Amino acid sequence: MKKSLIVSIICFILMCNLCFAKTIIVDKYGNGDFFAIQDALDSSDHLVNTIKVLPGIYEENIKIDRRISLIGSGPNMTYIRAISQIESAIKTNGTDPIFIQGFKISGTKGIQIESHSTTTIKNCIILNCGDGIRMNINRDTYCVVVITNNTIYNNTNGLYLPNPYPYSTIHIFGNIIAFNKENGIYTDNINKLSINYNDVYANLNDYKGCQKGTGDISKDAKFMDVETGNFILMNDSPCINSGIFGDYFDPDGTRNDMGAYAGPDSASFWPYVTGGPIVTDIVLIPSSVPQGESITVTAKGQVR
């Protein structure tokens, strides 16, 4: 009887915590609960399980050491740009699950994982860093890392997992990992490693310490315009409908793509208008006229 009563009390407490779990908003323009991401993390209590970050450029270094879902407004809208030259743009540690989604991230260092639990990184663009994603876990520590549907571009190393982690489980699914100066994916003696349905190409070493996985390709992803930071896929990209296979679909109902704009969780920032064109080029003829005169606008576009 006592045991049943204790179990009932525990269940009641857990249900109460779920009922009171809340989301807080970060908006650098002042329309949320906080102006800065780190301030939100530092000030939030255990009842906050989600921090949503509205569009903008956030120049800060983020440290996460508690259970949280940190969700941006999409990699084309929410940008974390590290200001410290020695700290990572995002560093995770502690023993609680951490979920990161929907950011563009750059800095001297990208995301450093020191968490001893489950860390999930999803729908992010990580570029121009030393290591895009790096693990730094104690040898005797168990952890799970899920890296899915990201675009990891022009870093020194895309994914750098440099030390033996015999108790780690790593899943690398549906990413585009390209033009990293040394290694696309570098691993060393990971106990359970799954690498599937990625596009890994044009790195000095595409794979080091690991092998190409099921469904992996090595082809030009055909982004719209890398020079302007547009990593949307062109309509003839080999990464379209080539991502994670199974009961996992893009917002338009087709098979999952590869890269940051893919998967069911990308619905809020899905960049492709169903049946409509994506404008890729605009020409004004002439480029300027006196007041009252006409200008001809010619636009080129692609339909997904």
What labels describe this entry?
7-stranded parallel beta sheet; single chain; 2 domains; mainly beta; 304 residues; 37% strand
Short description:
9% of the residues lie in helices and 37% in strands. The protein has 304 residues and is mostly beta strands.
Describe, in plain words, how this protein is organized in 3D.
The protein has 304 residues and is mainly β. The chain folds into 2 domains: 23-272; 275-304, no CATH class. Helix content is 9%, strand content 37%. The protein is built from 2 helices and 26 strands. It has helices at 2-20, 37-43; strands spanning 22-26, 48-53, 56-58, 62-64, 68-71, 78-81, 90-92, 98-101, 104-106, 111-113, 118-122, 125-127, 131-135, 143-148, 151-153, 157-160, 168-173, 176-178, 183-186, 192-196, 199-201, 205-208, 223-225, 230-233, 277-285, 296-303. It has an 8-stranded parallel sheet with strand order 1-2-5-8-11-14-17-20, covered by helices on one side. A 7-stranded parallel sheet has the order 3-6-9-12-15-18-21, with no helix packed on it. A 7-stranded parallel sheet has the order 4-7-10-13-16-19-22. A hairpin with a 4-residue loop joins β23 (223-225) and β24 (230-233). The protein is globular, with a radius of gyration of 21 Å. The relative contact order is 0.09.
